[in-house]
Each structure stands twice: as structure tokens, then as C-alpha cells.
Design a protein that fits this description.
CATH architecture: 2-Layer Sandwich
Radius of gyration: 14 Å
Largest sheet: 2 strands, parallel
Order of helices and strands: HEEEEHHH
Helix content: 40-55%
Distance between the termini: 45 Å
Structural class: mainly alpha
CATH topology: Zincin-like
Bound molecules: zinc ion
Length: 128
């Protein structure tokens, strides 16, 4: 394997671990809601769809709501979930573009089991 690929893998692993830290943080509450997005419906960007998280989606008790359109495939939902977690990880970045770029770098680098793990977390955070 080329050195650059190794570096990319290591970076992807590192980011994945940070996302896991967020998901395992006992002081943080994240709730996933599958709901049609209010404005404009689905926004497709390349292969992915944008979910939604934002100030308006932080409710009174500080819970962070991740809203994902229910109509997209399971695979796309997992990817949107990953994207929204990147927003939480880099919460001081307001711009959409760098987060999208990160997602495009990260997602193809993740192993199948890492993606499945994100998917499992996503469904475990759905509000009953
Ligand atoms: Zn975004």
C-alpha cells in the first residue's frame, strides 16, 4: 500500500474514533429523528443527501437532534448520519462546504464494519 493511502486510512480511523467518542459521551444526548425535512425537501449533493442539524434543532435540555429524511436508502441515511456527526465534531465550523469535503474524504475510507457500526448507533438513537 502506498504511503499516502496509509496516511489517509490512519486519518479516517482517527476521525472515526472521535465520532465514536461523541457517541459514547455520557454527557451528550443525541436523538435521531427520521422526518421529512421542512425546507425544500431533499437536497442531493453528488451521491449523498443532506440531513439537518442546527441551533434550532438543539432543544431546551441541550439534546442534539439529527433529522434524516426517511425516504432515502439505509445506506444514504448512514452517510447522512456520519455527515451530521462531523458537524458535531467540528461544531465551530459554520460552513457547509468543509464538512461536505470531510464527508467525501472520510466515507469511502471507512471499512464496512465501521459503516455498520455507525448505522447501528443511528438506529439506537432513534426516539421511541
Ligand atoms: Zn451539513
Amino acid at each position: 500500500m502506498k504511503k499516502t493511502n496509509k496516511r489517509r486510512d490512519k486519518l479516517a480511523d482517527w476521525i472515526f474514533c472521535r465520532l465514536m467518542d461523541i457517541l459514547n459521551d455520557q454527557n451528550r444526548e443525541i436523538v435521531v429523528v427520521f422526518k421529512r425535512l421542512a425546507r425544500g425537501g431533499l437536497e442531493k449533493d453528488g451521491k449523498t443527501y443532506n440531513g439537518q442539524i442546527g441551533q434550532k434543532d438543539i432543544v431546551d435540555d441541550g439534546t442534539q437532534l439529527i433529522t434524516i429524511d426517511p425516504q432515502i436508502s439505509k445506506r444514504s441515511k448512514m452517510r447522512v448520519f456520519c455527515h451530521e456527526l462531523l458537524h458535531i465534531l467540528f461544531e465551530d465550523i459554520d460552513d457547509e462546504k468543509p464538512i461536505e469535503n470531510l464527508e467525501h474524504l472520510l466515507w469511502p475510507q471507512l471499512s464496512e464494519s465501521q459503516k455498520q457500526m455507525l448505522g447501528d448507533y443511528m438506529y439506537s438513537l432513534v426516539k421511541k
